[in-house]
Amino acid sequence: xxxxxxxxxxxxxxxxxxxxxxxxxxxxxxxxxxxxxxxxxxxxxxxxxxxxxxxxxxxxxxxxxxxxxxxxxxxxxxxxxxxxxxxxxxxxxxxxxxxxxxxxxxxxxxxxxxxxxxxxxxxxxxxxxxxxxxxxxxxxxxxxxxxxxxxxxxxxxxxxxxxxxxxxxxxxxxxxxxxxxxxxxxxxxxxxxxxxxxxxxxxxxxxxxxxxxxxxxxxxxxxxxxxxxxxxxxxxxxxxxxxx
Length: 244
Known about the structure:
Number of domains: 2
Shape: elongated
Helix content: 55-70%
Number of strands: 0
Distance between the termini: 8 Å
Order of helices and strands: HHHHHHHHHHH
């Protein structure tokens, strides 16, 4: 396949949220072939929704990293794409480019352990101090057993509250990727934005054949820089439309 055809296939994949194999692309010799191919791929099964989410995610990564689309596949490792020294800035930019809810970076396990220890220690000190004061002033009216049972319950409440506050305000320490591959990331994006990829996002209906044709003509004419009138079903990409 020539460069024009490769770029046209990539644009078609991204615009329609479908996946075309090399064999599919080689079989589409005319505009009509490509149109029928797109129609055959367009459905809203879960696997297709996953493909839509992947191509939406890949588009953001390509724009962010300035790399060829084909260089990012579902199995692509995110670690080299987001080196730790630049990870927070790049991750924030990827979230902006995708224009959807995007997963946050995570705290490394070493920091989570420190947060737990800090929250547990502070909560224990506060609850212990309160328990001693209560026992000293009200020990005759309240049994020690009830005081310490209440202390345990209060410790759990304070622990959860302090841990939540620490994690909320220590976001600069979030540097760990939430998943390993681009495919895993797209699945997270799909889970967080299911409505954006579901039928309800397109007025509860898949695009009509006419909608697909109009969109495909727009893509081909723009990609090959030709007049829309030239894009007819029988037109050959190489012989009639000048695609290399």
